[in-house]
Amino acid sequence: MPILQPIVNLAEMLFQKGITDVVVSPGSRSAPLTLAVARHGRLRVRVMADERAAGFVALGMAQQSGRTVAVICTSGSAVYNLAPAVVEAYFQDVPLLLLTADRPHEWLHQRDGQTIDQSGLFGTHVKRSYDLPADYTHADARWAIERSVNEAVNLSQLFPRGPVHVNVPLREPFYPNPDETFRYEQVRVVETLSASPQLSTDTWHQLQAEWERTDRKLIAVGQMPRDPELLSVLQQISDEWGVPVVGELISNLPRNGQFITRTDTFLSGITPDRAETMRPDLLLTFGGSFLTRNLKTFFRQYPSRQHWHVQPTVDRVVDPFQSLTRLIPGEPTAFLQKLFADLDYQHFLQGDDEDDSRTYLHHWQTADRQAARLVHQTISDSDSPLTDWTATQQVLDQLPTHSVLHLANSMPVRYANLCGIDERQQISVAANRGVSGIDGCLSTAVGAALATDQLVTLLIGDVAFFYDRNAFWSAPVPPNLRIVLLNNDSGHIFRMIDGPGRQPELETYFETPHGYTARNTAADAGIMYITCSTKAELASLLPDFFQPGDRATLLEITTDKRVNQSEFANYKQRLTSL
User: What gap in Å lies between CA 397 and CA 389, rounded to an integer?
Assistant: First the structure.
């Protein structure tokens, strides 16, 4: 098949560019791409029948590894099914390479099957789109393909990372003859060197001076992967300079007595007088999105005089609190390490005694401790029934050290944030908070488990779980995956939100009760299945549930949505005492 030699070479290009994992959805038009990667021998190829699940599996693999994962699918509506995962990857800065087979463009609008306008289909939700030539005989066409794929893979990895689309028109024949063998030719690799932005000496001294003369400084961390070096320098800044460090579970800030992690509780209904004592003069932010509305509302209603945001590139103004005054190019860990080292040395030379007032830090830490006591009182009653919230606390307390936690959207990620994770557990937390949809949460966790030997635990609600069951379609499910399914037979979050929660149409039009259990789904997928409905049962099951084994395990926890609602209402009533 000499006319398709550039497609065979494309697989070698992926390998030479550092891509090791490819997720493929079966199709005929995409057969040349699929056969090229399948016969390569040094690429790990995973087959997922459902393109929507395939996209999210690739997303989970890329989240976990930090490397670009390639996705291959056939033409037509199959390509559109990648869209939910693509937009999540785009807003979460996750690198994907989308290789979509297509008919040659002259067949568009000619009533041919599986033919849509795929060029630029993902619009502004990819970093760039490429459209390869449909004819490969001319040397210029081969040069263009090689150049474009080099550029596409490089672009997926350059900050901000993200998905890149390569549309691949293909003519018949798609399949080699039985006696044909693939020959992977040497390809030309174009390496794009990365360079970290560097502030001028004058600019750096200006930032240091402004930092030093500002009294109330606060650092707020958005969603980020777990980074021990970052946690270390944040701890030093808070310990030695009295600066509050605020974040959430998806920020990978553990509960250690120093970081402020319970803002959703103590900022609820905060009085204006108290808010003024906690308003920062200088707010330093970095990372992705913030989860809780109360934290975002506080920073919007009580904006800081100065707001610095640190991010690797400054081509887009990120201003979620509507207070940004300075966008600083840089990698957050390196920025904070230099800030701390330079100012700490300056203090040493000046003979400072580090006797700065800790009053501002005390305000935040006192509020955090009060919130911790309130949450503990709310969910620690031994006589109270099992709820989604108390089950979440039991699960998080038992997570094995150095494991991975994936949090599905809707209520699971919020319950987990209220509970928090202790620093000693060393847990890495991930969640699809780029777009924050429930679609693909199960598939993303499957992808994460495929990309690591660590135990991966997914906490997921019933609607999100059943919506994404095709994550299990292509066996085997990785044995290091543990799924905790909170099944309250409803779209539970709508019962918690004041608007839909007060409507007579709540149960029919918002909650969508279904009556399903996961027993048959687990059996079909070859997953070990256990279930419980009481605190005592859950406590007895968790130690064995987290043990390594040769099969994935699903623990279905059955709760009553009305009891969940009542217990959460009790918590909201307690908030008035803060």
Answer: 12
What are the distances in angstroms from CA 152 to CA 191, 328, 369, 496? Answer: 11, 27, 48, 44
Which domains, ranges and CATH numbers included, belong to the chain?
Answer: 2-169 (3.40.50.970), 201-367 (3.40.50.1220), 381-577 (3.40.50.970)
Summarize pLDDT for 205-215 with one digit per residue, the tens.
Answer: 999 999 999 99
CB 251 within 8 A of CB 185: no
Residue 389 phi/psi, 5-degree rounding, is -70, -50
List, for residues 382-418, the tens digit of each pLDDT value: 778 899 999 999 999 999 999 999 999 999 999 999 9
Tens of pLDDT, residue by residue over 164-218, are 999 999 998 888 888 888 889 999 999 888 777 889 999 999 999 999 999 999 9
Report the chain's terminal Cα–Cα distance, integer Å: 73
| Cα 555 versus chain centre, distance | 23
Which parts of 351-471 fold into alpha helices (H)? 359-379, 388-397, 411-419, 441-450, 462-467
Distance CA 447, CA 201 (A): 44
- Widest distance between CA atoms in the chain: 81
Q: DSSP secondary structure string, 328-377?
A: EES-HHHHHHHHHHHHHHHHHHHT-------HHHHHHHHHHHHHHHHHHH
Handedness of CA 180, 186, 190, 193 (dihedral sign): positive
Alpha-helix residue ranges (DSSP H) falling in 504-557: 519-525, 535-545
pLDDT, tens digit (0-9, with 9 covering 90-100), for 8-45: 999 999 999 999 999 999 999 999 999 999 999 999 99
H helices of 263-331, in order, are 263-266, 272-278, 293-301
